[in-house]
Specification:
heterodimer; A: 266 residues; 70% helix; B: alpha/beta; Rossmann fold; 34% helix
Chain lengths: 266, 270
């Protein structure tokens, strides 16, 4: 009986990490681009959906609820395929042609379709996060705004959203962390991002552990950099986030540090 | 009268003259619970009216009905000759206004909450200038000038850069009063402004309100009988959604006519 020798090519593994080639770096850039654009669009879709969800107009509410239910109830990969392949069949036109020449740079139709699908998916999750952020605001804030003559739109913009942002940002950071990794699904519609690059190398060399291991390290690097950025953003937002001092509103943001170090309130 | 051409120092004058606010036969229910059962109230310029009564008697709801934070089920509220929450159409009938128009009418009515409700993401100064700048369109520099004057009047000139979370309850409430005054309201409503305060902070808020009395038209829902006695022109006793008794403070506290007022006062002073 032949013994399978398990060999791991450490040189190749480190080479993929420390000496990325140009093709890989372009794949890396595309990964980040897709994640950032899809996340931004997702937040916008989520904001609109959250506002629709809180609207007094019931058809808007129904659309928002239905959208979130369908998207959150189906796999992302199915949505990506449905949009890329299905949209063309439905519409009878090539919604996402093989390549698009946008003014500044050429982008493949698959990338556009992928970003769209990820953004639509993200929007459903963001809408729930934003809605709960908005609803976490004490009713007194709205009443104070009303009594100062502020219109509902102004109240939303100047009072509700800035305060909701603090509640929204931590889960938003987690969503983006997920987004960085979910981009790998776009490999299946032919987008040449980081995972696709690893996949192509694997297919020609069968060195799965080295290539997929190295790309995993790259994902880890991306999410690591992001967590540093996220931490900085949360700290900045937290500057004015101190518990109001009123007797009934004396609430402190729950922080782990508070569990270990005894701080006395006034 | 534009917001700019009025001076910030009001003069203390005896109450009287023009009727500023008139509530006529207000009724309000929450579900099956009728909280306000037909209350009418009239307050003249620079008059200070204190509303007292047991908890759950409807005092706060009445106050909230006056600036339409709650829409009364029936009755009407008039601010000078304008009906709050309604617009007169061509045929002369009054039609309910949507919220974004009601908030325009509320500019003229300041409201001070039990829980202060300052904007926690803005400094004391930013809290005060927010609405003059965004709603009235006052130039930012002018709004800041006036806000500093107001903060000085409530004794908080040194705290303009502090976020509400860094202020004591008494300081927050004084900022809230300055914020309401910055809109140059015709009328100020105070909803138990000292009830959420630690005892040692009540005095600083009460003295700001006494300072304001007779410079501003005020309706004050309060349990501070000392304030009512010293500053009010009229004390209105409310119980179970109705006005029980209405009198000048001297008469109200020394010789209440109604049994329920007597019971209430004896409980307040043990």
């Amino acid at each position: 009986m032949q013994v399978l020798a398990v060999s791991f090519d450490w040189n190749l593994f480190f080479d993929r990490i420390f000496h990325p080639d140009g093709v890989f770096l372009r794949a890396l850039a595309l990964t980040v681009e897709i994640a950032v654009v899809a996340q931004i669009l997702g937040v916008l879709i989520g904001l609109l959906t959250a506002l629709a969800r809180l609207s007094r107009i019931w058809p808007l509410r129904a659309i928002a609820i239905g959208y979130a239910m369908v998207i959150r109830g189906t796999p992302v990969l199915v949505q990506v395929f449905f949009l890329y392949y299905g949209a063309n069949l439905f519409l009878g036109v090539d919604l996402f042609p093989k390549s698009l020449d946008l003014v500044l740079f050429p982008v493949s139709g698959a990338v556009i379709a992928g970003i769209t699908a990820l953004a639509i998916n993200e929007g459903a999750y963001m809408s729930e996060i934003i809605r709960s952020g908005i609803q976490s605001l004490p009713a007194g804030q709205i009443e104070a705004s009303k009594s100062l003559g502020m219109s509902p739109a102004l109240t939303m913009r100047r009072v509700v959203l800035p305060q909701a942002a603090r509640v929204i940002v931590p889960p938003l950071g987690n969503q983006f962390n997920g987004m960085l990794k979910t981009t790998s699904l776009l490999f299946f519609i032919g987008v040449y991002e980081m995972f696709a690059d690893a996949q192509v190398h694997y297919a020609t060399t069968f060195k799965a552990a080295e290539y997929f291991g190295a790309v995993a390290v790259w994902y880890l690097l991306l999410t690591g950099v992001w967590s540093v950025i996220q931490y900085a953003i949360e700290r900045r937002l937290g500057v004015s986030l101190r518990a109001p001092a009123g007797r009934l509103t004396r609430r402190r943001p729950l922080a782990l540090s508070g569990l270990f170090s005894q701080r006395h309130s006034r | 009268m534009s917001p700019g051409d009025q001076t910030m120092t009001w003069t203390q004058k005896p109450a009287g003259g023009e009727v500023i606010v008139r509530a006529i036969d207000i009724r309000k229910s929450f579900g099956a619970n009728e909280v306000i059962r037909g209350i009418s109230l009239e307050v003249r310029e620079r008059e200070v009216v204190c509303i007292v009564g047991p908890s759950g008697s409807g005092k706060t709801t009445l106050l909230r009905c006056i600036n339409h934070l709650e829409r009364p089920d029936s009755g009407s509220v008039w601010l000078k000759d304008e009906r709050i929450g309604y617009r007169r159409d061509r045929s002369g009938t009054y039609r309910p206004l949507p919220e974004r128009y009601v908030c325009r009418q509320r500019r003229q009515v300041g409201f001070v909450f039990q829980q202060f409700n300052l904007f926690p993401h803005r400094t004391a100064l930013e809290n005060v200038i927010e609405s003059p700048v965004r709603v009235l369109g006052v130039a930012r520099e002018q709004a800041i000038r006036e806000a500093r004057e107001l903060l000085a009047r409530v004794g908080l000139a040194a705290k303009e850069g502090a976020y509400p979370g860094r202020l004591s309850g008494g300081q927050q409430q004084r900022v809230a009063i300055a914020r309401a005054l910055a809109m140059r309201p015709l009328l100020m409503l105070f909803d138990e402004p000292t009830s959420a305060l630690d005892p040692e902070m009540i005095g600083e808020v009460v003295s700001v309100m006494e300072e304001l009395a007779h410079r501003m038209t005020m309706i004050v829902v309060t349990h501070e009988m000392g304030f009512a006695r010293r500053a009010a022109d009229r004390v209105v006793m409310i119980d179970e959604g109705k006005v029980i008794e209405e009198a000048a403070p001297e008469a109200f506290f020394t010789a209440p006519r109604e049994q329920r007022t007597q019971d209430f006062l004896s409980k307040m002073f043990h």
